[in-house]
Predict the structure.
Amino acid sequence: MPTISMFYGIVVRMFFRDNEKHHVPHIHVECQGVFAVYAIETGKALEGKLPPNKRKFVEVWIEMRRENLLVNWELAMAGRPLQNIRGLD
């Protein structure tokens, strides 16, 4: 599972061909040993729960980088290499 971004102790990953369980474009997020899955199109958690301050960072980041995330989703579904996506600065 490639890491596509890291910021403020948050690691964002995307699996290749990972559309069976959640059925929507999504990312996997880890922070301090806590895991969550977020829908790209809505920015809402599909599974898991991050601490409130980290959750807000992820939601803002998804909103800012949605276009890049959707490009990566298409690449992942095709089994192609993913692009790194800038974190929050």
